[in-house]
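Researcher: We plan to redesign the surface later, but first we want a full-length starting point. Tokens attached.
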């Protein structure tokens, strides 16, 4: 499969080790950002097929990035986002963000192995088509 035919994933994560693990070749073309501000700019310029987004980051947190992206245009409103974080999904701000920002999915990093996250990505992408 050529680079231009690969599914493009944007990983917005401030921990380089985690970002590197998810960037390993899983058949996706991966672009990365270290904070929500850079992630928002990359999302708008690169238009990835799916975004893996951490919540707690410097400069701009993931929830703010997601809110801004969802309000900009149709692409931003519709692109699947998987929140991949260590925050509890029971926290009010997380619950509110999930219900307000469809299609958004939530995974706790410590509960998911890389192979399971890749399967979840493929599952979410299949819903998009």
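Model: Full-length starting sequence:
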């Amino acid at each position: 499969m050529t680079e231009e035919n690969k599914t493009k994933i944007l990983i917005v994560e401030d921990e380089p080790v985690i970002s590197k693990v998810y960037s390993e070749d899983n058949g996706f073309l991966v672009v990365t950002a270290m904070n929500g501000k850079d992630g928002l700019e990359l999302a708008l310029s690169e238009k990835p097929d799916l975004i893996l987004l951490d919540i707690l980051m410097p400069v701009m947190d993931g929830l703010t990035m997601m809110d801004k992206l969802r309000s900009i245009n149709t692409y931003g409103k519709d692109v699947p986002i998987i929140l991949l974080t260590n925050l509890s999904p029971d926290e009010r701000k997380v619950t509110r963000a999930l219900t307000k920002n469809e299609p958004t999915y939530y995974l706790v990093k410590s509960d998911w192995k890389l192979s399971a996250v890749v399967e979840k990505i493929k599952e979410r992408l299949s819903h998009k088509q």
